[in-house]
């Protein structure tokens, strides 16, 4: 039977049944309280001098029964510690409910966080000694409790089998390089077996940033799983398809370098990667929590703290599904099954589509490169990595390569007539003199005089 709170009206009903000489069993059936509880109150009635058949005014009876009621109300000392921060809690979790002036810069709400994150902010910011259970009681009183949501379907994987990866927007941060507020994204990954996460905050989601974060991820884990399950974002997938997705060429090279495979989730099917979907809101709350506590930190400082959170706070807490801390499960079962990293770190390539102009040059990173005569007007794919620029056709057949130097105009010997090469090199006068010498001394003197 569930717990029932005993109030004055119920106790009065038990008293009246007792003075009417009803048995304890009948009172139990009618009022629904345990026989031991009823017997203990009858003993209290008798200790107060009450007995069956006794007549008492209602006012006196109420006073006696009030004294007999259990004093089981909880103390509020700890919850009172949170009362001075009520408005700050409302601004953090529910700015619309705050009584402050929303136009005032001091009262302007920060980015909204969840109640548990607000609790962590207050505890760390003001050094409060308040348990999370006490905070939850106070949160219910002022209406901070968030509504529960249905959890996504979980698909379990063996150790070393799969890593789920995704991006999520987490907020804004002032870039220390230009002083402007920029949008911040979280590159998030999670091992499907141990649930050990990896989080890196970035300003962009371009291909280079995507691959740099993937490299940082495998170095954080100290190995790589059999496959990487990703969303159909443009940085990783050029053309989504259920059976034959077209993977970004640079990302495909990354997978080949680390001997792993790329698997893509179905378009619009978040449950295919439910584990990482759950991590995105947690990464967002972590970013806003760190930003609230350390508002002057740079992105690099936030990332260092995020890795500590992955290893210690999240990694050492017991996971609700597995019943084991992610870091412990990783160290005991999954770490040894990851593929080892190659001795050479993958260098992120830069790909760019280029078109050869009528003068037989194309432009890449503000420099001009020459192509053979039969390439005028055609489109190619330029790839720069390791100080080498390579040019491929549509079927990735190598056409030409150049070393990347400070020279802004590059060509190979024999690409152009000698007269044009001399003109491009600024040595056209010397070229004319050399041609005049072949015609005789008079021609040489004429050209030299010019």
From TrEMBL:
PROSITE patterns: INTEGRASE. InterPro entries: Integrase_cat-core (IPR001584), RNaseH-like_sf (IPR012337). Transmembrane segments: none annotated. Residues 154-334 form the Integrase catalytic domain. One of its GO terms (biological process) is DNA integration. SUPFAM superfamilies: Ribonuclease H-like. PANTHER family: TRANSPOSASE RV3428C-RELATED. NCBIfam families: transpos_IS21. This is Integrase catalytic domain-containing protein. It comes from marine sediment metagenome.
